[in-house]
Amino acid sequence: DKGGWSSFMAKEVSEEPEAVANTLRGRIRDGEVVIPELDGLDELFTDVSRIIIIACGTAAYAGQVGKYAIEQWTRVPVDVELAHEFRYRDPVIGPDTLVVSISQSGETMDTLMAVKYAREHGARTLSICNTQGATIPRESDAIVYTHAGPEVAVASTKAFVAQITALYLMGLHVGRIRGTISPADAADHVRELEAVPGKIAQILEREQPRIEQFAGWMADTRSVLFLGRHVGYPIALEGALKLKELAYIHAEGFAAGELKHGPIALIEPGQPVFVIVPSPRESAEMHKKVISSIEEIRARGARVIAIAEEGDAAVLPKSDEVLRIPLAGTFFEPLLAVVPLHIFAMGLATAKGLDVDQPRNLAKSVTVE
Ligand code: F6R
């Protein structure tokens, strides 16, 4: 039931705040992360020296965002690998490896086969999954469910923000067990997480109509580029994937620092480029670097659509459009910056008269390898 929305996707984007809030529910006690499902499973995290995250598509981008925070909080090296690549390269894994799979459906065959492979080769396995009782969690040593609620639209939206939330909960849990994060820092991050649902709701309320309007003006666009740095990089990839799958437009995401190593040759007058701008309060250095990327592409005629925090005045004179997100710590910005990109892809596809719930050639759950 679409509950009065024009599509399941519109409904599910509107549910992004709840997807985060429900994934946090029951897992924070007195400002500390407590994950009941992981009770008695400490050795899963103390006996390993590395983490490999495996997933496909949007779930893999959630994994890439999670990597930055988990490494920072646990000091355990984290690799992120596409499930279908992982299994076929004879990966070096064993009992010292924790393989964390991420899957909304819990039925993606590529991911399932990679989890089975990891188990057979002695690795520990943890599943982050949105579907109770699905196959992948049943094949894993531990499960942390995301509670995004059923996702019907083919394109994953609310599950993505729930997956990042679950990865952060896991990271804070492991950081506490391993003693790699101070209680004060952990409490700060918990507060940030708890503030995310309200901030996403603000973006939906304040920016959605404007984003849909200019997505409508862009219905004839043939190509859109997305730039991000650090945690903004996987968000750029996610923005591009959504546009490809929903609006059938050529779209590519790049790490902003990679521009000068090739992609800048693509920039010609009028080329729309979304840029995810990191907070100047959180990292003046990264902010400066991204601003200088904007200057380089704008000098070559790009039409810059910046996603930047409220109050960041430096982006204004350098961008054609600025989409504002509320202030947040570095690791929490991706949970906000992705929302305008989901709205944009949906808005552009709708303006082209396409079915956003059921894009051509795609299935919700890919149960073949
Ligand atoms: C993109 C999308 C897909 C899925 C991918 C993994 O919007 O929906 O890329 O994220 O097929 O699916 P799950 O999470 O069910 O394993």
SSE diagram, text form:
Layout: H1 8-14, H2 16-24, E1 28-29, E2 32-33, H3 43-46, E3 50-55, H4 57-74, E4 78-82, H5 83-86, E5 97-103, H6 109-120, E6 124-129, H7 135-138, E7 142-145, H8 158-178, H9 183-217, E8 223-228, H10 232-247, E9 250-255, E10 272-276, H11 284-299, E11 303-309, E12 321-325, H12 333-351
Helix pairs in contact: 2-8, 2-9, 4-8, 4-10, 8-9, 9-12, 10-12
Residues 56-59, 103-105, 108, 111, 155-156, 241, 245, 365-366 line the site of fructose -6-phosphate.
What does this structure look like?
The protein is an alpha/beta fold and 369 residues long. It contains twelve helices and twelve strands. The strands form three sheets. It has a five-stranded parallel beta sheet with strand order 4-3-5-6-7, sandwiched between helices. Strands 9-8-10-11-12 form a five-stranded parallel beta sheet, with helices on both faces. It is globular, with a radius of gyration of 20 Å. The two termini are 30 Å apart. The chain binds fructose -6-phosphate. Residues 56-59, 103-105, 108, 111, 155-156, 241, 245, 365-366 line the site of fructose -6-phosphate (F6R).
